[in-house]
Amino acid sequence: MKAAVIQFPGSNCDRDMAVALEKSGADVEVVWHKDAALPKGVDLVAIPGGFSFGDYLRCGAIAANSPICKAVVDHANAGGYVLGVCNGFQVLTETGLLPGALLRNAGLKYICQTVGLKVETSNSGYTEGYNAGAEIGIPIAHHDGNYFADDETIARLQGDDRVAFTYTDNPNGSRADIAGILSDNRRVLGMMPHPERAFEEAHGNTDGQRLFAGLLSQLTTA
Amino acid sequence: MKARVHVMLKNGVLDPQGAAVKHALGAMGFEGVNGVRQGKVIELDLADGTTEAQIGEMCEKLLANMVIESYRIEVL
Known about the structure:
The structure holds two protein chains of two kinds.
Chain A: E1 2-7, H1 14-23, E2 27-32, E3 44-47, H2 61-64, H3 67-77, E4 81-85, H4 87-95, E5 101-103, E6 111-119, E7 135-142, E8 146-148, H5 151-159, E9 163-167, E10 178-182, E11 188-191, H6 209-221
Parallel strand pairs in A: 1-2, 1-3, 3-4, 4-11
Antiparallel strand pairs in A: 5-8, 6-7, 6-9, 9-10, 10-11
Chain B: E1 2-9, H1 16-27, E2 40-45, H2 52-63, E3 69-75
Antiparallel strand pairs in B: 1-2, 1-3
């Protein structure tokens, strides 16, 4: 399985993401935002956390209009896998690959802590390693993670089983406690929590490992 | 030519910053502040002849996120 990790000025979880993917068995290439094309044969694009372009204008807005993001959108539209974590989730909503938007946290504070998540569906390459309904702990670290979408969109996400993760104790005001959502074809996942920071024994928590393991098994057999 | 773009969160979208400013004004003793909404003002210095439709495209593609925000263009 071949993965590309996109690097923007201000990305700061790119290395952690690359390490998690490599240790799960993927061939990883880090790709600079000014590149207009993805490396050939990429199965998964990972958009890491951080503060791309300083979060200027809106989180993820400038990154979403960078040359590489046009290639990422084409990759997703052709049925490719895309994982966006934290700032990566914000970028995915700004490109329109995922619905909704991430607003300032309801309590206005930047929050950095491990939070409880409920796995809402095991029906995706990302979540097949978990049992639906399982509770896991994954760290969050964000100021703008308050998921917003209109009532109709929330109902559609829930009705189509596209909510991947919810918070067990909503830390940021997200509508319907949403922490992560899937695209219509279930191959694009955006989530605010950082599975790559709960990956190794040294992290004190390996609850994120199964996300990468599931993805690898899905994409290696495909 | 110059234009000013006002970007505001749409009605119904939670504005925690506006709510915090409202709370602070109340705490400072200003009475009767029933609501505060916080937005952005973006000033554009443009080539003469830029049309309002072109500015609208800039707004919809970058300056505003139409999922949560609305915009108003003021040509100066």
